[in-house]
């Protein structure tokens, strides 16, 4: 059973979902994969995991790195889990590339290469925005494309963390400001 609650953030409404293990979803209203993986039947209820997630978000949106982590429950394929584990290792205030994540996975598997596009697909299916920091991943050419919550939010989060660089650019097809 999933439980849900809403959080009002500086970038808009966020839907939070948890199960008995921890937070399973953090989705921005209107994002590409909104409520992806949410049970068809769920109960509006502020669980302990959701309360802790809201406290984490309060700290994060004050421009500080939270020094605690609410319980989370990452639900996905083995490959997605591997990618998400690497995302969680990206330090606050820094970025990495899809290519670098692909290189790390290839190295861990003892293979020559891994598709950065496959990594990008897994990154896009991350249900735990912010706490599993997919916004910290950029393309090798410094493009900020590829954020399900919207490029404008990705820019906001990178600036909030002090990770935004002048050399980043937004592709012309983007709707970012």
Automatic annotation (TrEMBL):
Known catalytic reactions: a 6-O-methyl-2'-deoxyguanosine in DNA + L-cysteinyl-[protein] = S-methyl-L-cysteinyl-[protein] + a 2'-deoxyguanosine in DNA; a 4-O-methyl-thymidine in DNA + L-cysteinyl-[protein] = a thymidine in DNA + S-methyl-L-cysteinyl-[protein]
Domain Methylguanine DNA methyltransferase ribonuclease-like: 3-72
UniProt KW keywords: DNA damage, DNA repair, Methyltransferase, Transferase
Keyword DNA damage: yes
EC numbers on record: 2.1.1.63
Domain of life: Bacteria
GO biological process entries: DNA repair; methylation
EC class (word): transferase
Gene3D superfamilies: Methylated DNA-protein cysteine methyltransferase domain (3.30.160.70), Winged helix-like DNA-binding domain superfamily/Winged helix DNA-binding domain (1.10.10.10)
Residue span(s) of domain Methylated-DNA-[protein]-cysteine S-methyltransferase DNA binding: 78-163
Single GO molecular function: methylated-DNA-[protein]-cysteine S-methyltransferase activity
Family note: Belongs to the MGMT family.
Name of the molecule in the record: methylated-DNA--[protein]-cysteine S-methyltransferase
């Amino acid at each position: 059973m999933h439980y849900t609650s809403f959080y009002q953030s500086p970038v808009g409404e966020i839907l939070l979902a948890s199960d008995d293990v921890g937070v399973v979803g953090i989705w921005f209203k209107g994002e590409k994969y909104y409520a992806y993986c949410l049970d068809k039947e769920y109960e509006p209820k502020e669980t302990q995991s959701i309360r802790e997630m809201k406290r984490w978000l309060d700290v994060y949106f004050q421009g500080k790195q939270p020094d605690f982590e609410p319980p989370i429950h990452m639900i996905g394929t083995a490959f997605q889990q591997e990618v998400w584990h690497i995302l969680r290792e990206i330090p606050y205030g820094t970025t990495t590339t899809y290519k670098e994540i692909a290189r790390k996975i290839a190295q861990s598997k003892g293979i020559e290469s891994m598709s950065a596009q496959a990594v990008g697909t897994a990154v896009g299916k991350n249900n735990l925005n912010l706490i599993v920091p997919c916004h910290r991943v950029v393309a090798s050419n410094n493009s900020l494309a590829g954020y399900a919550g919207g490029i404008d939010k990705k820019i906001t989060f990178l600036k909030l963390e002090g990770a935004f660089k002048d050399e980043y650019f937004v592709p012309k097809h983007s709707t970012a400001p």
